[in-house]
Amino acid sequence: MALSGLDIYKLLPKTNCRECGFATCLAFAMQLAKKAVGIDKCPHLTSEVKGKLEAQSQPPIKLITIGSGETRLEIGNENVMFRHEEKFFRPAGIGFIVEDNSTDAEIKTKIEKINELKFERVGQRLEVNLVAIRQNKDAKRFIDVVQLVSVNTPLSLVLMSPDAQALKGALEILKGRNPLIYHATKENLTALTQLAKDYKVPLVAQGDDLEKVSELTAELSKQGVNDLIIETGKKPISEKVWDLTQIRRLALKKSNRGLGYPSLVVVEQNDVYAEAQEAATYITKYAGIVLLKGIESWAVLSLLTLRQNIYTDPQKPLQIEPKLYPIGQVNDKSPVLVTTNFSLSYYTVLGEVEASKIPAYIISIDTEGMSVLTAWAAEKFTPQKINESINKFGVKDAISHKRLVIPGYVAVMSGELQDESGFEIIVGPKEAAGIPSFLKNL
Amino acid sequence: MALQLITEKWSGEVSVVTIGAANQEGGTRSHAVKIGGEKSLPYLFKEGSLPNKPQIAFEILDIMPSDWPNAVSAPYGKTLNDPLEWADKCVRDYQAGILCVRLLGSHPDFGNKSPEEEAQLIKKLLKKVSVPLVILGSGDDAKDNLVLPAISEAAKGERCLIGSAVQDNYKTIVASVLADGHNIIAESPIDINIAKQLNILISDMGLALERIVMNPTIGALGYGLEYAYSIMERSRLAALAGDKTMASPFICFVGQEAWRAKEAKADDLPDQGIIWETLTATALIQAGADLLVMRHPKAVEKVKEYIDNLFRS
Question: In whole angstroms, what is the distance from residue A147 CA to residue A173 CA?
Answer without folding.
Answer: 7
